[in-house]
Amino acid sequence: MILQTDHLEKRYGKITAVNNLSISIPRKSVFGLLGPNGSGKTTTLGMILDVIEKSEGSFTWNIGEKGNERKKIGAILESPNFYPYLSAVENLKLVCKIKEVSYDLIDPILKQVGLFDRKEDAFKTYSLGMKQRLAIASALLSDPEVLILDEPTNGLDPKGIVEIREIIREIAEEGRTIILASHLLDEVQKVCTHFCVLNKGNLIYSGVVEELSKEKNRFQLRAENSDLLKLALENSNQISEWSEEELFFSVLIKKDSSIEVLMQELSSKNIFVNHLSQKTFNLEKKFIEILDQQL
């Protein structure tokens, strides 16, 4: 694990912003902190970056030399903030001086974030999406092992969201760990490998996106003779539940069975399925289920 938090808490007087948070973030993962506004996501990021003082608990980074972990982390916690009348190159040169890295890194990183053709234009002429991409470029200048992003697509139009999403994927493919906070379910489902759900400062769920990406035992079926298929499903020992939808039958295969066994059973009864699909997972539904369990 690249980061572990142990009973991490942040209190502001009587208000507990983050409560007893213990999570483990795998190395080279894209980890999403998911939750509604006010759930404690930004406060959590602030604590693990040591820009917000924790009230209780601890966290451990497993990167770099002890005491110098911050040098291996690139982070964007607020809205992109650069000198408005300076170009992208000029702004990044200032960042290079602060981080003590070579100017030679600027052009390759600007190409990576899709700003190379606009590198000489003033920051104030950039769209919000371009400003966000420049902020990511700035964070990448120190060649961080971990990139932390707080609501990276907040306020962007659909095109900007797709652009940032692709950049995040490319950065992850380089072997970096990415930790991002978001209230956008679609964003987390499409870019994250792991995620947790926070609500009112409490951890209420943690899991792997791939394991939830498909309801592995739920399928949609259709056959030419729907009456025969319905009768067969009613009498099948391979499924734990089924329902009739508008155009299909939805079936949940028992854990000790498989879709192949069900197909063989139907075939032996001369029922031939002309449509079979695995039902896809919807993070929005899962998120609502998780929140409902807390009520």
Structure description:
The chain is of the alpha/beta class. The chain has 2 domains: 209 residues, Rossmann fold (3-Layer(aba) Sandwich), CATH 3.40.50.300; 66 residues, Alpha-Beta Plaits (2-Layer Sandwich), CATH 3.30.70. The chain is built from 10 helices and 14 strands. Strands 6-7-8-4-9-10 form a 6-stranded mixed β-sheet, with helices on both faces. The two termini are 32 Å apart. The model has no long low-confidence stretch (mean pLDDT 86).
Characterize the main sheet: 6 strands, mixed
Number of β-strand runs: 14
- What percent of residues are in strands? 25-35%
Please report the distance between the alpha carbons of the first and last residues.
Answer: 32 Å
Overall 3D shape: elongated
Structural class of the secondary elements? alpha/beta
The H-and-E topology, N to C, reads as: EEEEHEEHHHEHEHEEHEHEEHEH
- Count of DSSP helices? 10
CATH class of the largest domain: Alpha Beta
Rg from alpha-carbon coordinates: 24 Å
Helix-residue proportion: 25-40%
Q: What count of structural domains?
A: 2
At the fold tier of CATH, the topology name of the largest domain is: Rossmann fold
Instruction: Output the strand order for the largest sheet.
Output: 6-7-8-4-9-10
Q: Averaged pLDDT, please?
A: 86
Low-pLDDT residue spans? none
CATH architecture of the largest domain: 3-Layer(aba) Sandwich
